[in-house]
Amino acid sequence: MSDAMAKSWAVLFARLVLGLIFFMAGVWKVFVLGPAGHVQRFFLPFQHTFLPVWSLWAVGYTIPFIELIAGAMVIVGLKTRYALLGLGAVLVVVTFGHLLEQPLYALHEHVIPRLVLLLFVLLIPRDLDRFSIDGLLQRRA
User: Fold this and answer.
1) Given 41, 70, 96, 125, which residue has the most CB atoms within 10 angstroms?
2) Contact 74, 83 (CB under 8 A)
3) Model pTM?
């Protein structure tokens, strides 16, 4: 196997794992917990902070859909970089929330592994992501 092919497999595995992590979180938050339940469980506990309650509802209601849709896009490799930007924004929001509540929050348990995979997939040259819809479209062009 060539180095380029090995790198393509590495991108595929990283993309699939990252996409599945976010997609399955989105599935649970949209279809099991419900977007309103997501807000109530994870965002309204921050209503005692300086954040307006409307912003907690807006962001908390939107995140499950971003995770679901962008996670699916990353899995299949469709508009991957745009999807990764959305998921990166989710990680920033999650990090901010955790650190707002607990300034010494253990980011290595939740955020950092996802961020590392996200950065890897985002920074890898596009032509190495051969096993994706983006790669297929790029080869056809």
Assistant:
1) 70
2) yes
3) 0.94
